[in-house]
Amino acid sequence: MTLLLVFAIIEGITEIETDFNFGGVNLQEAELLPREKVFRDPVHNYIHVQYKVILDLIDTPEFQRLRRIHQLGTSMYTFDGAEHSRFSHSLGVYETTREIIENFERNYPTKTPGDGLWDDSQKLVALCAALLHDIGHGPYSHTFEHIFHTNHEAITQEIITSPATAVNKILRQISPEFPQQVASVIDHTYPNPQVVQMISSQIDADRMDYLLRDAYFTGTKYGVFDLTRILRVMRTYKDGIAFDQQGMHAVEDYIVSRFQMYQQVYFHPVSRSMEVILMHLLQRGKELYESGQLEDTQAPKLLIPFFEKDFTLQDYLKLDDGVLNTYFIYWRDYQDDILRDLAGRFLFRRPLKSAQFNDQTKHLIPHLRELVEEAGYDPKYYTAINDSYDLPYDAYTPDSEESKTQIEIMQPDGSLEELSTLSPIVAAITGRETGDERFYFPKEMLQKPSDSIDLFNPVYAEFQQYLRNGALIDPQKE
Amino acid sequence: MTLLLVFAIIEGITEIETDFNFGGVNLQEAELLPREKVFRDPVHNYIHVQYKVILDLIDTPEFQRLRRIHQLGTSMYTFDGAEHSRFSHSLGVYETTREIIENFERNYPTKTPGDGLWDDSQKLVALCAALLHDIGHGPYSHTFEHIFHTNHEAITQEIITSPATAVNKILRQISPEFPQQVASVIDHTYPNPQVVQMISSQIDADRMDYLLRDAYFTGTKYGVFDLTRILRVMRTYKDGIAFDQQGMHAVEDYIVSRFQMYQQVYFHPVSRSMEVILMHLLQRGKELYESGQLEDTQAPKLLIPFFEKDFTLQDYLKLDDGVLNTYFIYWRDYQDDILRDLAGRFLFRRPLKSAQFNDQTKHLIPHLRELVEEAGYDPKYYTAINDSYDLPYDAYTPDSEESKTQIEIMQPDGSLEELSTLSPIVAAITGRETGDERFYFPKEMLQKPSDSIDLFNPVYAEFQQYLRNGALIDPQKE
Amino acid sequence: MTLLLVFAIIEGITEIETDFNFGGVNLQEAELLPREKVFRDPVHNYIHVQYKVILDLIDTPEFQRLRRIHQLGTSMYTFDGAEHSRFSHSLGVYETTREIIENFERNYPTKTPGDGLWDDSQKLVALCAALLHDIGHGPYSHTFEHIFHTNHEAITQEIITSPATAVNKILRQISPEFPQQVASVIDHTYPNPQVVQMISSQIDADRMDYLLRDAYFTGTKYGVFDLTRILRVMRTYKDGIAFDQQGMHAVEDYIVSRFQMYQQVYFHPVSRSMEVILMHLLQRGKELYESGQLEDTQAPKLLIPFFEKDFTLQDYLKLDDGVLNTYFIYWRDYQDDILRDLAGRFLFRRPLKSAQFNDQTKHLIPHLRELVEEAGYDPKYYTAINDSYDLPYDAYTPDSEESKTQIEIMQPDGSLEELSTLSPIVAAITGRETGDERFYFPKEMLQKPSDSIDLFNPVYAEFQQYLRNGALIDPQKE
Amino acid sequence: MTLLLVFAIIEGITEIETDFNFGGVNLQEAELLPREKVFRDPVHNYIHVQYKVILDLIDTPEFQRLRRIHQLGTSMYTFDGAEHSRFSHSLGVYETTREIIENFERNYPTKTPGDGLWDDSQKLVALCAALLHDIGHGPYSHTFEHIFHTNHEAITQEIITSPATAVNKILRQISPEFPQQVASVIDHTYPNPQVVQMISSQIDADRMDYLLRDAYFTGTKYGVFDLTRILRVMRTYKDGIAFDQQGMHAVEDYIVSRFQMYQQVYFHPVSRSMEVILMHLLQRGKELYESGQLEDTQAPKLLIPFFEKDFTLQDYLKLDDGVLNTYFIYWRDYQDDILRDLAGRFLFRRPLKSAQFNDQTKHLIPHLRELVEEAGYDPKYYTAINDSYDLPYDAYTPDSEESKTQIEIMQPDGSLEELSTLSPIVAAITGRETGDERFYFPKEMLQKPSDSIDLFNPVYAEFQQYLRNGALIDPQKE
């Protein structure tokens, strides 16, 4: 709080007595490891650690816990290789930031305060913020948050600033204000725009790492762009980071890759279907608990504080994907049909099916839900609309209000031009609508009526009249 | 013939009318999917599924459970990217086998029985065996087996042949004998040597997939060899599978890659250290349970049948890596110091340190264990020797007794030559000793005595006299 | 023969005079090699040859000559790795075609004539056409053609159909009509649309190979797309080749890659600059020859038939990039200043500089040429406008008149939809103007006037007023 | 010391007070480019140039000429992709050296003279030597040298030190002694061992670049090793360059890769066969010239100084692969049967066939040559033994006399251990014999006698009795 005040003052004063050196850490004082330590990484080849504080942060329980939280949530049910964790992504964001700074140190070192060049006293705060930017994530992030009203960004701030954590203790060894400085980078209130943009902007270390990493582990080739080149053409200026015009094509390619990854990986209908099931499963568990129907032996001990809306940071830090899955295994033996069935659909990957709809066909959905109900499925748990809570698409929309959405290309004479004015292909996909609205329903609705003497055959047959080529159609109008 | 009889007895049948067709499935009768289904895979690009039985097997709870068991166990603590599961490896072995067969179908189709060429009625049994060869694996395989005396190979056989499983039910739809045929491929008793060697030999689909996959996910480059080329030069002969002499260099490179992966990945000292901790942690938990000291709330519900040495297949199938980790999280709150501490070391990756020893320095270990004890650590739980239970190295040893250890190169005139007689580099590494014996101890023993006024400073100082360049030395003899 | 009749009727003709033996080659009669032969290839890993006719064609002098003609002409002066030849590209187009056909053979074999499926009697004509489609290329193709009025497409036809060539002799061994059939595939008059589209359409074996190959050798990553996936989703239909909707994203990615390769590689201003120099150099040589000023010892023996506009096919087949370069080396010793200087600029890579212009700045060019002349350079040889003779961009323009410009996506119900109606990103770049008009001038015009006491300093200074950020500007209007 | 003296005399100095700083260039004085310039490169992604002297050297006629000389000579006839030139390899060696130095500058900067750390005044001499180390190569190097008794190493020295070259002129701008310093690095007489070993030792920038580059362009995977890792673990010491023990496996993998590249690429029998043909062709041309039988119009103008053993550096610099090929095209029209035929075999890739022989079968060769003669081929031109003039294998032989053959691994305590004492796999291949002796003969000797009524059928039949599985055999002894 005090700190925020300080910022406000800094922004509104004409005289600054105090050390312009806000947020800075004298690197001479930061303890170097006796020997650089490396972690092998399939995306960056090696992660290089030179400072003791970085190694100590990696070794905290809060950070190690990220090994047990998948980076892409339910996408691993569509892309089998995508079993990587937030741990390796966090290391990757750190390494990317380290490489950006290495370039800035060498080529754009500040000479006089305010010259828009790189001030090396910012190095440590940037590296720590990069490493810790996702540390507040919990299991199946957005879905979990939706059900339990947690907020991973607030928890990230808390892990960094609360004196109870190992992370905070290590950061404090740098200086008493250091934890708050790191936290302020992550929530964008840190005064140095270069540091903020490194971690969070249209081309930041976070996005660059996750695109390359997710492309690598899913095995899709769309996400690949030329990281080395982009790092090389990044340059500082007064208000942040720009890209030398010589590297414009690499930047352009990054935007195209991102567009394709969203279209083809992050928004994949089957991953979203598994998310629907997970959401309904947690919802059902919560409702049963609230109505006193979860018996003791099936009670998900570590989830109870969340069911009861009364949890501590320590409760939160005990959770991971495996813990939730363990409770789902418990629930497979539970007597509630819906809980048991949904747990099985999630654990053993039995996604709902889906069909696209649009404004012309949206009105059909209530009737389709009735048919699902007629076929014996509670539509509350077995149908859904859209539901892409995870990973909302951040399109490149340079005309948006948000300051972070401009990519600036630096011309030979030093002037800046916004990317989409220079690149036809970026202009083409800029701000483009990428919606894919879907109605989800049980696969069973698609069984061939003729295949069996099932009681529900006429229901299936009617339902299927509303589908063609993966979309809803109105059979009356054909 | 004897073999068939043995099976017959196992199955409890006394009469066998016909048998030549053992193992064969008329492909005309196997149900094809209306449309080939593909799974994206980063190693093989795509996994292609044409038969309904394969898709149904993938969709079983027993197989989906492999998603929750890491392929490389504790190696993910050394190579952060190695978070892949046995699920994707199993698909990869299936795909590799499918590609081998595709080549055989096209280029070496049998014309008359016994001509040593490929008989397509063997296709389905080979594909199913490839897919299911690892289905009996449990969490942290070899370590778990060591403590609880389970056996994943026996469980694989049981999952395939027990009428209680979904896997068995699907296999039986092909024919009543089909489950047993698939199981016999996996335990090497199936009569067609080509099918057996595809799944299990010096160059089989299993090894080829895991080397490439583990290289990909660890990010090491050593494991890469030319799979496409090897598949292309594989050819059938009467006693199994040989390799055309045109592709000898690719086969050679595979042997070298395997050697390097063992040396540099599978035997990595830090992974083995994490395994030591896991072993001691489970051991401690078991002992506490047996002595009645594990209270109810910390009791690992799903592990109890194993503590009590009385478990069913269904109990086994509920376990996975996440379940064990969940109990380790529980144990972090337990009152037993050792259990609590070891659980933290495992969950938060705090490996023991190690030093190599040899016959000359082995005698120092008892004294070093005493020093560890003096420093306050129970040597039973905080020291270890070697302990590479997981992944014993299968060196290429062509002169071994086991029949599967020969790699045959087919010469232009059709004669066969064993690989190491043709390749100097393979001869060089053939059967080479690859031992790496290590003594493990707590990292705390390495702290600089001068750093603190720790009570144990003299102990640390003495201990450290016995170490140099990562190995034990005898300070008396220097 | 029956077959021919059927097609004739389909095509709406009732009489067939000529035996235009459409309908291909009975594969049973084509001679298979005793053993498949492979060529190692960095793009496709291996090129696989099964038919003797293919191997014999590769071994002809006409085809081997392609080793001595660079695939990308002057692009190798911008992208140093791009030193690959038309030889390896031709093998790559053959291999891609072979893989397309392998897929068609397996999945879409014809059952009844006219069913729109793949007729394997078309295989050999398709393979030969793929291999030979570029065989008429000469050195520095488009530039050479521009100066000497040759036509590589006509020469391709001649090499295939003239009885004087080794290529023709080999093709004739298949059947007397076979050479003409192969030639007709290449000039799009062959009646089977699947065969024609394989070799020449929006997604054909030619384009797919050159994008991947040029991306590989230039080291740019933009050109990479998922060939395996595209091959897998290709399917035959009555009017040609369509793409299964499951693979739409791979097709989309191919279109994006192509767009980027044109923007970033094929249209690179420096490559075009080297082409300008080459053009002017050949032009100067020709003019000197025509005016009798090329002395005997510098006379380019093998070029004389072209200077004299009286050349035979045999004369043409003696030319390659090295022959032209050899004459340029001769010309370095010649007395004509311009010839000597331009030869050096080409041999030792001293490109002209360039600036973009547009309709608003085009009027400045005459004055700039005057300034170049004032500085001592003949503007006829030392300036140029645009001049991208090589590699005109083939944008994806589905609404064009040409039949080959549609990419059809096959929906689950078998209906076809044109790609850009389904893909926002393809719609965005479809038919987009990609012009980049440039004015080329000697680098010397950019020297800093202050650097020397050069006589021409005021000229340079004035010239440079017209340039900013790589484009022409009108200094009056700023 | 003697050495220093020699230099001193060359330079015309009689007294040397101090010498430690020999060869150094004050980097402050070297002109930096206003902006770093990059060249795209498929192996290193980008080549980065910061100094004007480097860019100027690249732009010299002597260096640009390397574009027209293939890196791998006749290997491109076996591996079609291997069409890369000495130009891109030279840039790659420069870039690798630049990266080595970048690491040294950052991590091992000298503090006091003689401390064994990196002295940055050595940077420019190392970079220039790296760039220019191959500049004396001519067309088809070793073969050409064998026939014409040229020496590319002497010519490299001459290009660098002769005042007549552009290269020398640019180097002299640094300092009058600079050309000689650069030359002395290349001939190993330069006093700073770190600089010498960077360019020439068991793991130098030259070897590392060519292995990766040749692997990339041939498309073989064997040559790939982890360059980034090796660069990272390189460290200076008093007597040169060592490798940190943490990176031993990367070094080991490099040795294995090199072994495999020699076995599988550089020694490939077909490439050697094409070299035999080239050698005999040049030999024949020379003999005809010497006996006055090469008429004027077929006279290879630029080769005549070499036929006459009286050539200047300028004569040498006019030659390239294309010039030689142009003369071979001329010779295709010549009346000498052997010259004409050999020229065709070379231009159109018609290699001789070969068979391995050993001490037991060597005695058969004279008789086989007689049979070749009986079949109508002059054995002097149509047979050969072995003939691997190009690319003699440099095996890793640490016990050799030559000082450069040790690879030193630096242990944690700073002591050095020779690689093969630590690595079983390197020990295994160390100094291993890799000979592959072959007898070359015309392919025509292998034609099936039954295929024709050829006069020579009995000769072919007898010849073929001596061959089995690619080796000579003695039919008497079978």
From TrEMBL, chains A, B, C, D:
HD domain boundaries: 86-211
Q: Which PROSITE patterns match?
A: HD
The organism encoding this protein is Lactobacillus selangorensis
Q: Which SMART domains does the UniProt entry name for this protein?
A: HDc
Is Hydrolase one of the keywords? yes
Q: Which UniProt keywords apply?
A: Hydrolase
Name the chain's protein: HD superfamily phosphohydrolase
Q: Does the keyword Lipid metabolism apply?
A: no
Any GO MF annotation of the entry: dGTPase activity
Identify the InterPro entries for this entry.
Answer: dGTPase-like (IPR050135), HD/PDEase_dom (IPR003607), HD_assoc_2 (IPR045509), HD_domain (IPR006674)
The GO biological-process annotations, alphabetized, read as: dGTP catabolic process
